[in-house]
Amino acid sequence: MKAVYPVYFTKAKDIILVEVPDLEILTEGKDMNDAFKMARDAMELKCVSLEDAKQEIPAPSKMKDLDVLKGIFAKEGETVISLIDMDSTEYRRKIDTRTVRRNVALPSWLNYEAEKAGINVSRVLQEALMNVLGVHSSHSPKSKL
Q1: What's the pTM value of the predicted model, to 2 decimals?
Q2: Where residue 66 falls among pLDDT bands split at 50, 70, 90?
Q3: CATH: 3.40.710.10, 3.90.650.10, 1.20.1250.20, 3.30.160.250. Which one for 2-94?
Q4: CA distances from 119 to 29, 73, 98, 144 (A)
C-alpha cells in the first residue's frame, strides 16, 4: 500500500517531535532528516502491522482539515505540517527476509536436467514468480542460471 500522510513536526529544545495523527504515531528525531526517517519508518511499520492483523488502515486527512495548534506537541515549540509518503509493500520487502519452504512438483526428466546443469531450482522459481508478479526484492541476490 502506498499513501501520503500529513505529519506534524515540532521543534522542541534539542529534538524534533513528530506526530502522525491519522495513524496515532508519536516519535522524534535529532534533526529534520532524522525526524522524516523516523516518521516514515513508524508509518510503514504501523501499516504493515495493521495489514497483518487484517485491520483497516486509516485514510490520510486532508491538509485543510488540520490545525497545528491541535497537535499533541503544540505547546512544546513551533509546529509545521508536511506530507510524507510511505510504501508498506516496499517496507515489507526490506524487513521480511525469512524464507518459506514449499513443495514443488516437477517432472523427473526436468529435475534431472536442472541438476545436471547445476541450476538452483528454488532461485529460478523465485525469479520467475517475481517476474510474473512484477515485483522485486532488495534482498534477492543475482544469480547465474
Answers
A1: 0.71
A2: very high
A3: 3.30.160.250
A4: 47, 57, 22, 8
